[in-house]
Amino acid sequence: MQSQAQSITIKHKLDVPLTFGEKEIKTLTIRRPTSGDLRGVKLIDVLQMDVDAHAALLPRICDEIVDTQFVYKLDIADLSRVISKTVNFFKPSQGAPS
User: What was the pLDDT predicted at 7?
Assistant: First the structure.
């Protein structure tokens, strides 16, 4: 059974689509990370928007099958928006106790 946190997803339409294998990827569907997705990744690096940390994390949380090298090939505008959207998952939701 999926928890509500696991089912939260966002879509990002790439300004510059990329080819992965034989498939052109125009949109990334990114789901809210779970604790297990963060194994081997320092949370502080993710929150500081470190590219290497996100290159490790994004393949784990994208519905599309991508790898670290795919993340490194993203256009800088796409990369910065995808990283920003991913970091937003770590903000408390409205109404959550502080």
Answer: 72
